[in-house]
Amino acid sequence: MSRPLPAVLSCLALLAAPPAGADPRRDADRTFPPWQGGANAPARDKGLEFTVHEADNLADFHGDLTNARLILYVGGNYFFAMAPLVAAFEALHPKLVGLIYYETIPPGLLVRQMRADGRITVGNMTWTAKPDAYLAGLGAVERLVREGDLVGPAIPYVTNQLTIMVPKGNPAKVTGLADLARPGLRLAMPNPEFEGVARQIKAALRKAGGEELVRSVYETKVAEGTTTLTRMHHRQTPVWLMQGRADAGVTWLSEAVFQAEANLPTERVDIPADLNETGVYAGAAVKNAAHPEEARAWLDFLRGAEARAIFTRYGFKTYSADGTPDRN
């Protein structure tokens, strides 16, 4: 079981370090994803490398579909951890090296793609990637098992909590959730329509200020234009903060930890435990998956020691059935 560690450590070092000579305050490309120097591109033969950070950039689609033997739909909330996870998994399953493809768009959008037989269009490109496993919040996975899209049982593996992400230096002086109702404070907030984290955010807002705070952030400020709803908060929130388009946004803690490790000009304002919410991450194989054995191997891997060490690095905690009552 120790074989993956060199690959994992190499990948983690690459994720944490900015490109040589880069300064995110001066280098405009550092504002835009991908932020990981190619570490999240698992294809071995990359051919022509063409990325224009602001214009031509498929940051949430990873790998080579040509001969893929494992296709994963991963809720985008840990896109940054996928490179070391894939490296560790490939070390355990060398026959799958370079044959893993994965997507990290929001879980609700992944469901729409799954129900469109894996068909998706981004810009002028359309392709089909039928998933073998789907990974998102435990409640969403259990629901999809009941609805027949996934094969149960749902497999939970880690938990996460919320934080407030702000630009470096916190120029708006945000101190907590109650501040998010402040007139004129510009927010980037996940869209409840397809971003599952919005459920936990609303619950935390309710703890901090009741329904009035929820309405202020998600209704009044939306109508006023001072809350902008994202389509993929794990990418848009930090970009908007770095561009000066937003003053704050609630994200998963793990995303703020990654931003700090990548030396990007954001920081976080912690939410007290009594106001915070816990999300449980889970997965299941997709019904009629083309690669069911590989899907099961991935789900087993996520509960193992190698995956646990990687998740812990980014602030996740190991799932405990009796310690995580929130199942959304």
From TrEMBL:
The keyword Signal applies. It comes from Methylobacterium jeotgali. It holds the Pfam family SBP_bac_11. Residues 1-22 form the signal peptide. This is Glycine/betaine ABC transporter substrate-binding protein. Residues 20-39 are annotated as: Disordered. It comes from the Bacteria. Keywords: Signal.
